[in-house]
Structures are given as structure tokens and as C-alpha cells.
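Sharing in case it's useful to others searching the archive later.

Someone asked me privately for the predicted structure of PDZ domain-containing protein, so I'm posting the question and my answer publicly. Question first, with the sequence:
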Amino acid sequence: MSEDHRIARTSHPRKARGIRWFFTIVVILLGISLFVPTNYYVTRPGSAIALGPMIDVEDGKKDETGSFMLTTVRMGEANLGWYVYANISDEADLMQKQLVVSEGENNEDFVKREQAVMDNSQKIAEAVAFRLAGYDVQVENQGVWIMGTIEGFAAKGVLKIGDVITAVDGVRTPQATDLLQQLSGKKAGDQVEITYTRDGQEAKTMLTLKPLPNSQNVGIGVRPDNKQSIVIPKKVTIASQGIGGPSAGLMMALEIYDQLNTDLDLTKGYKIAGTGTIALDGAVGKIGGISHKIMAADKAGAEFFFAPEDEADPNSNYKEAVQTAERIGTSMQVVPVKNIDDALAFLQDQKQKPKQS
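And my answer, the predicted C-alpha cells:
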């Protein structure tokens, strides 16, 4: 055997060992990146989930030929690996942590808040759907629902997510605006008596006011919402499967309304996805992460997508949704909605989808 062949044969193992070491180092670095935190959350496309199996209306019908689908966004704290991925991928975005969770709020608090908001959204969706179907719905404002507390303020460590403030200095506060009204005109250092309920039990506490960030007003440091008692004439069960946030309001209202109308199939055989908060008057509100929801709906085969529209907003959900739909080349039609009536009018204009043979 020639010397050249001996050299060639002995050099291959060295080269192989070098390649193995290279990939070993890469794997180690990737592993380390999983434990390096950042000050960001990463968002990605979630799922488009049919609401029919999730929602049951007493004496309602479930014979629709198509489906209404809520859409979700996958969100989590971004480690270094996800940070790098989000900067090179069109399917992931970064959000600064302080835009997702309040200072001093942990991930558990965030999950509780999102679930509480989802519960409230469900109740409002039920009220809207039953009213549209001609039923009497009773709505009573019960107080100011605590969705979170701010670090460094008196409410932190005293009030919890889910508590309901019912009075300030003995004056009832049925809505969040009433809380603001009772605190207006007061100054930093003043103390107020807060009456609140927790797990059905009433309690009182004295809290000292501080200047609110980026505001000329003082406050106790809470993220408020309206807690309402909504009484509907039939039982509705919603298995939300741990999904949080208010953005499924519109689609839940449509599904409930469809089940209440036993002689009508709103879907007409189509897969209909969408997003948007819902108010008691049926108004549809803006949400976050709509680009990811468009991608999720497209992947699930949706044919229509309802997107909140605000013509005065240059960055409205609808405009962003259309841009994303064009970018990914979907055949799904994006439909602008300002009110649930817009969605219903669009559906009524559609012809029944031919059955596939």
C-alpha cells in the first residue's frame, strides 16, 4: 500500500472526530440557551378550535354543517433560544415582559388573571347571544373586579386577583368608573377604606394612596374590570380547556346564538374562525396577536375569518390580518366586524356550501 493511501486512511477518523466535537458543542450551547432568561415573552401561532364540542346550551341544537372556531396564540417566557428564533422567524414575535405582566406579578398571577378575564368574557357572550335570540337577560353590576395589583402600591399583598371591591369609604362602587370617581380629588398619602369580597366573604382594609405611573391621579394600585352578575334563562356549559383572555368573546357568542336558533344553521357548512372581545351591546373589540391567529386559522382550513375593525386605527386588527393573509398566501377570506351584527349579516348573505361527494 502506498504512503498516500496510508495517510488518507488515517486522516478520516480525525476529521470525523472533529465533526462530532463540533456538533457536541452546538448541542451543549443550545442546551445552555434553554436556561438563559430574557426580558421578553415569545408569541407564536396557536390553534383554531371548534366551539361546538366545547359549548353546550340547554335544549340547544348542534346540527350545524360547519363550525365556529376560536383562535389562540401560544405565549411563554422567552429563553435565549426562543429570543434568537423569534428574530429570524416570521412565525414568532417578542413582547417585552412588562407589557405582559405587571411589575411584581409572576407567571401564576398572569395565568389567574387571564382565566378570570375568560370567565367574564364567557358570561358577556352568553348575555349577548341570548338577547339576540329574544330572551330576557338580567345584568347587575356587582363591583370592581381585581385583575392584578401593582408592585409598590398599597393593594399589593392585600388584595388578590379575583377580589371584588364593592365600596370606598362606605360609598358603593358598582363599576370601575365608580372607583375612579371616589378616588378623584384625593392626594398622595390619603387613606381610604376599601370594602371587598373574596370567596363570598366581605372584608375591609385601609389603603394609602400613591401617585399612579404616567398619571396625575392617585390610586391604590389595581388593574380593574367590571364584575357583573348575568342571569340567563337556560344553562350554558363552556369547557374552555384552560384557554385564557377575552378574545374568544365574539366567536363564543356566535356559537351560543347558533345553538339557540334550532331552525337555523348559521355556519352553512363553512369553517368560520375569528377573534375579538365582546361587549354587552355587541361591540367587537381589538385583541393581540392577530397575525398568529390568522396563521392558526389557515392551518386549520378555515374559509372565513372575522377580524375586529376600527377604521380610525391605522393599525387595526383587520388591516393587520389582511396583511398577514396576503403574506402567507391563504385563500381564507378576512371579514371586518365592528359589531356582532356585522358578522351575522355576513353569514346571512352566504349561500349554503355544497356537500362534498
